[in-house]
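User: Um, what's this?
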Amino acid sequence: MSALLVDSHCHLDFPEFQGRDDELLGAMKSNNVGWALIAGVTLERLPGVLALTERFSNLYAAVGVHPDTQEGEDPDEDRLVHLSDHPGIVAIGETGLDYFRLEGDLEWQRERFRTHIRAARRTGKPLIIHTREAAADTLRILEEENADEVGGVFHCFTETLTVAQSALRLGFHISFSGIVTFKKALQIQEVATIVPLERILIETDAPYLAPVPHRGKLNHPALVRHVAEEVAKLRGISIEDLGAATTDNFFRLFSTAKRA
């Protein structure tokens, strides 16, 4: 495999990875994974994320507060814009809606989502979208807030082809995680064969969702190659072509990321 891969979404700042930076980066190199993007989940964790981007030139970051996070700072638009000035920040997120874990009045979640979209439009940086059991509201708010001006990616895609097509019309990319390697993930596998190649990204969402043959174990960016292999197989193309396309897609979308 000659084309370097990108893990477009992971969480290397999580406790599972503490003290293992050199090991993880070494594994990436051994598996032809050239770069990784660390998605934000809280502002309290951001200093640790930025420290990784400052130490390793092939790691990038996004700033945001995960939709089901109820503790810690809930940033306003100006705060997100200010934080995104750091050279390691290439996107806003992850953000979106999650109706799976939370119940009751979730208007606060929708307002937080709007805040992130507005910050993205002001900075010109793309959005990293998390949506779970909330696709209709996610798409509606993206449309209402003119998110097509910046685009972004629906990360760890688990929705229907119809949702994917709506996201594509809004200018978003679709990212596939280790779930696409699961035997029963037929709906996601179908989407992976139909989404235009120039709009696909791949990811691990590490430390979660390790792909087959590592399912159930700790996930890490080096394992994104298994995602690449599965998507390439589903589409009937070589992993070299899949890798080249998804890497080009990443750097075109996250245009402030330096291709070190």
The chain has a mean pLDDT of 97. The two ends are 19 Å apart (CA to CA). Strands lie at 5-10, 33-38, 59-63, 89-98, 127-132, 152-154, 172-176, 200-202. The longest strand covers residues 89-98.
